[in-house]
């Protein structure tokens, strides 16, 4: 099964990546799952102000696109764990580069706000 993001024709692979990762929480979900597998409640606490409905939707889309794996432990007290797939691990250097860019941008904005005072 492929999500709407992948069904839409993209003009280049970068656009495909942006479509798959678009979503308020997807990049952060992958970032937290790169650290280690997590359960739904733990992901929810990591993300903060995310609704259960929104988190569920974005987890399903990431799973459908092959970036994460959902493991159901099939026990009486339901236990589900999410982890990053091999395909999802390819996002790690991208997220690292985004973090470096973010730090540089924050530093620049900080310097700019100090000089404008």
Automatic annotation (TrEMBL):
SMART domains: HTH_ARSR. Keywords: DNA-binding, Transcription, Transcription regulation. One of its GO terms (molecular function) is DNA binding. Residues 12-110 form the HTH hxlR-type domain. It comes from the Bacteria. Gene3D superfamilies: Winged helix-like DNA-binding domain superfamily/Winged helix DNA-binding domain. The keyword Transferase does not apply. Pfam families: HxlR. This is HxlR family transcriptional regulator.
């Amino acid at each position: 099964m492929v999500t709407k993001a992948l069904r839409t024709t993209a003009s280049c692979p970068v656009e495909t990546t942006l479509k798959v990762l678009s979503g308020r929480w997807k990049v952060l979900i992958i970032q937290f799952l790169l650290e280690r597998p997590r359960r739904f409640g733990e992901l929810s606490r990591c993300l903060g102000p995310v609704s259960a409905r929104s988190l569920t939707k974005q987890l399903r889309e990431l799973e459908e696109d092959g970036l994460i794996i959902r493991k159901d432990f099939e026990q009486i007290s339901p236990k589900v764990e999410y982890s990053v797939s091999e395909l999802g691990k390819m996002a790690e250097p991208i997220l690292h580069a985004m973090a470096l860019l973010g730090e540089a941008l924050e530093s620049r904005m900080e310097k700019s706000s100090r000089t404008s005072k």
